[in-house]
Amino acid sequence: MDVKLRKEGPEDTRPVECLLREAFWNVYVPGCEEHYLAHILRKHRDFVPELDLVAEAEGRLVGNVMCTHARIVSARETAWETLCLGPLGVLPEYQRYGVGRILVERVTTLASEMGFGSIFLYGDPSYYRRLGFLPGEQFGIRNGEGQWAAALQGRELRPGALEKVEGRFLESEAFRTDPEAAARFDRTFPEREKKWLPSQDLFLELVNMVRQ
């Protein structure tokens, strides 16, 4: 399948939000908020528009990835700049064809060229390990609550970028979404059924895989 990547344009705003809604609906929770997250990220100071990419295949918009500024803060309040990857979404019917991998490889290459040394995310280790991400613990990086978290994974964008870095990974405050605002935004889309799926139990298991 021929996949073409480009930066998101103004004409892609609503289509990308629809795409993310399709990609994440009922996957991690009943319904989803990723489309709302994309909606508010674009207006936030931590958003990196140069790293907002879309994937096209067979004449359709099939994938999207976004990145935001983030920090790693040590116990002594020393701070290092890093990136947070996400959301990363691919239409369900185009998943397992490598679209996500292509988006991640392109966005990490661009981030490296922009001078970023590392990138982090919260996600499924079984997927992101295949894309070069390693446990945050391996780099000495804990989550915002100071815990070792299985879902927190990072990747150096240049060798040794995280060699002398340790502390807590702090993503943008934009990720602390307002559930009521997200629900209002979702009502601007066609109604869909919210329901339980086994993937939600797996997600909860991953979220709870933390330790001091």
Features:
11 strands, two-stranded antiparallel ribbon, 212 residues, Aminopeptidase, 6 helices, 9-stranded mixed beta sheet, alpha+beta, single chain, globular
Q: In summary, what is this structure?
A:
The chain has 212 residues and is an alpha+beta fold. It is built from 6 helices and 11 strands. The protein has a single domain, classed as Aminopeptidase (3-Layer(aba) Sandwich), CATH 3.40.630.
Total strand count, please? 11
What is the assembly state of the chains in this entry? single chain
Q: Any low-confidence stretches, pLDDT <50, length ≥5?
A: none
CATH T-level fold name: Aminopeptidase
Number of helices: 6
* Total tally of structural domains: 1
What structural class should be given to the helix and strand makeup?
Answer: alpha+beta
CATH second-level architecture? 3-Layer(aba) Sandwich
Q: What string gives the helices and strands in order? A: EHHEEEHEHEEEEEHHE
Please state the CA-atom Rg, rounded to the nearest Å.
17 Å
Q: For the residues shown, what is the average pLDDT?
A: 97
**How large is the share of residues in beta strands?**
25-35%
What is the CATH homologous superfamily assignment?
A: Gcn5-related N-acetyltransferase (GNAT)
- End-to-end distance, in Å? 44 Å
Which shape, going by the Cα principal axes?
globular
Helix content: 25-40%
Largest sheet: 9 strands, mixed
Q: Output the CATH class name.
A: Alpha Beta
